[in-house]
């Protein structure tokens, strides 16, 4: 029901560096031109800035998208999770106001509140759907077991999880569960937070607010060890006439027909590279070479710091 590749809009809120409304508008306009129909945002991305930007663009342009947003994370004064009906309803109403809508096509629980039964949460979401506030229900960073329990209450349209050549945890059950239930597997960070591109980020340039600054994979000696591997992958992509970003996203699409990658970018030029993956055909030789260059488990360091890792469910 959406294009093969969506657009992750977390970067509109500034976690990877400053941006402008004009730059974001240009990216959204190019997304529309390229046939990217699905936008993914959340209430915490820039404390509402991402949603406001999308809402302002749609109001000005008249372009329509299939929009997903999320709720359930509270960052201040300390990071915690709240999946109560009161909080979810309040968050959704705020998101709809920022987006300039009365309805959002997909609404995720951004992180599961561990002590609250998922059955209770699904009943809340089902009521919101019945009321016409949301079109479909999604869950983010959950285990296959949670998806199974949730599915018993109401169909789950999408499960979002980080997935790329350097983050393969969903291979250990989650993708299979999505395929079993007919649930879309929405893969965020398919280009490894910028590493699997032709513009490899340098941690020395990260602002203090950059999400990656605390990620162990971007801290020495892990960063240099990861860089050595990834440079070989990027060279292979260029030698075969493809951008590293498109090749990395094409690999995700190759892994399962349930996948909808949502690379995040704030520039139209980067989005053009990402979308090219939809038409890329990978041969058996391509796959063999990619797996040799970036074998499963190659990444040094955890994907999240201890603080960042408090919300995603661990199931292996």
UniProtKB/TrEMBL annotation:
<dbReference type="GO" id="GO:0005737">
    <property type="term" value="C:cytoplasm"/>
</dbReference>
<dbReference type="InterPro" id="IPR023210">
    <property type="entry name" value="NADP_OxRdtase_dom"/>
</dbReference>
<dbReference type="Pfam" id="PF00248">
    <property type="entry name" value="Aldo_ket_red"/>
</dbReference>
<keyword id="KW-0560">Oxidoreductase</keyword>
<dbReference type="GO" id="GO:0016491">
    <property type="term" value="F:oxidoreductase activity"/>
</dbReference>
<protein>
    <submittedName>
        <fullName>Aryl-alcohol dehydrogenase-like predicted oxidoreductase</fullName>
    </submittedName>
</protein>
<dbReference type="InterPro" id="IPR036812">
    <property type="entry name" value="NAD(P)_OxRdtase_dom_sf"/>
</dbReference>
<dbReference type="InterPro" id="IPR050791">
    <property type="entry name" value="Aldo-Keto_reductase"/>
</dbReference>
<feature type="domain" description="NADP-dependent oxidoreductase">
    <location>
        <begin position="4"/>
        <end position="293"/>
    </location>
</feature>
């Amino acid at each position: 029901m959406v294009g093969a590749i969506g657009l992750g809009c977390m970067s509109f809120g500034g976690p990877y560096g400053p941006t402008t409304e004009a730059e974001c508008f240009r990216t959204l306009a190019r997304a529309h031109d390229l046939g990217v129909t699905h936008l993914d945002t959340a209430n915490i991305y820039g404390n509402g800035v991402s949603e406001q930007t999308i809402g302002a663009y749609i109001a000005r342009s008249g372009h329509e998208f299939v929009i997903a947003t999320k709720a359930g994370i509270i960052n201040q004064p300390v990071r915690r999770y709240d999946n109560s009906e009161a909080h979810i309803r309040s968050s959704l109403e705020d998101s709809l106001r920022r987006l300039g809508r009365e309805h959002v096509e997909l609404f995720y629980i951004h992180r599961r509140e561990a002590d609250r039964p998922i059955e209770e949460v699904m009943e809340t979401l089902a009521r919101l759907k019945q009321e016409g506030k949301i079109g479909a229900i999604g869950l983010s960073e959950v285990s296959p077991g949670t998806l199974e329990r949730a599915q018993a209450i109401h169909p789950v349209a999408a499960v979002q999880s980080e997935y790329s050549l350097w983050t393969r945890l969903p291979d250990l059950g989650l993708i299979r569960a999505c395929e079993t239930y007919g649930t879309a597997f929405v893969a965020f960070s398919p280009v490894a937070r910028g590493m699997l591109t032709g513009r490899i980020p340098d941690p020395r340039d990260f602002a203090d607010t950059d999400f990656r600054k605390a990620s162990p994979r971007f801290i020495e000696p892990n960063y240099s060890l990861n860089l050595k591997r990834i440079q070989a992958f990027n060279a292979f992509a260029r030698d075969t006439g493809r951008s590293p970003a498109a090749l990395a996203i094409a690999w995700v699409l190759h892994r399962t027909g349930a996948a909808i990658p949502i690379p995040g970018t704030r520039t139209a030029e980067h989005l053009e590279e990402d979308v090219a993956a939809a038409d890329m055909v990978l041969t058996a030789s391509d796959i063999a070479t990619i797996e040799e260059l970036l074998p499963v488990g190659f990444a040094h360091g955890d994907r999240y710091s201890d603080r960042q890792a408090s919300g995603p469910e661990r199931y292996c």
